[in-house]
Amino acid sequence: MNEIRVDAVYQASSEPTVGRMCDIEPALAAKPLTTAVGAFDVVLAFPKFEGRLPAEGYPGWSGDDSTPVALSPTYFTAHTVFALPPGLDEHVVQAELKAAIAAIRFAAARLSDALRVEQPSVGMVGHIPKVLSLTATNITQGLKLAVPEPLNPGYPMVRGLPALTVDKATSALRDGVLPARALLSQARYLTQSTNSPQPGTAILLAAVAAETYAKESLKSCRPPGSTPSLRSLQEKHGTAVDLYGPIAKAVIGRSLEHDEPALWSDLGALFSARNKMAHRLRTPTHPDARRLVVAAMKAMDWLG
Fold first, then answer.
1. Taking the CB of residue 64, how many other CB atoms lie within 10 A of it?
2. How many CB atoms lie within 10 A of CB 67?
3. Dihedral (C-alpha) 229, 234, 240, 245: value to the nearest 10 degrees?
4. I need a surface site. Which of 87, 123, 125, 282 has the fewest CB within 10 A?
5. Are 78 and 104 in contact (CB under 8 A)?
6. Cα–Cα dist 17/88, whole Å
7. CB 31 within 8 A of CB 109
């Protein structure tokens, strides 16, 4: 068996300047953290600190030089080691490397989230931390391997979007943009058009946009005093995705569940991802977030 090791170095704070850097207790600088992500054991660690300042990787600290109470790291590392049989097809090796990198990114995002919950000034929870380096090595043979992933996830070129019209410009100047559409636009930007994707934030924005848009659209279709009321329909069915299913069926006579089952499934996955992000801080992957944000857009377009 060949042992493969993947190493990554992450920027610890969104703003790598003294005063905007994160702080950790000195004990954490000497404590590697291990977490299981799927089939991979990922080890994360801040730079080693041997009790003396200045120390490499720590340009700032709090407290006395001899007994600091907090250290400001510029980076943290993450690595995983896994075994592969010799002689595998290159495509299989690359697929395993991609899976290992995805596991490392997941673990790094969680460690970064822990910092940002305690210290919001160093970045927003759900943002993917910036990768400074990413390497893969066959440590059995002492060979460097080609890494099948970019340092930081990029984004495709987006073409064919509608041009701004006179009517849209005039409406925005007069009334402002529709809040739900504005939120969805922000979610699309955070998954489609930035080299610093923010999948967790995008999922939250897209879910709020889809839910708010459905409520407002269906309310405008429901004459005052109608029975059953939109409120009673929501109390009966309960979940946000039902606004596009049985509630829409009752109000406008059609259902996304019936019209476009695949889109209905993706919309349900969007609200499920929102709940995991909101209740468990479980950040979705960038590709999943991009797909689910597009699902929100298509569902809103279906509703009209």
1. 9
2. 9
3. -70
4. 87
5. yes
6. 45
7. no
List Cβ neighbours of 202 (8 Å cut-off, separation of 6 or more): 186, 187, 188, 190, 191, 289, 290, 293
DSSP three-state, residue 69: strand
Q: Phi-psi region for residue 32, left (φ > 0), alpha (ψ -120 to 50) or beta? A: beta
The residues near 3 (Cβ < 8 Å, ≥ 6 apart) are 81, 82, 83, 138, 139, 140
Return the amino acid letter for 265.
Answer: S
Residue with tokens 């600290």: 61
Whether the CB-CB separation of 115 and 184 falls below 8 Å is answered with: no
Query: Which element (helix H / strand E) includes 202?
Result: helix 199-221
d(CA 287, CA 285): 6
pLDDT in tens, 15-61: 767 667 899 999 999 889 999 999 999 999 999 998 888 889 998 88
Among all chains, which residue has been given the structure tokens 């509608």? 162
pTM of the model: 0.69
Q: Cα(75)–Cα(22) distance, rounded to whole angstroms?
A: 10
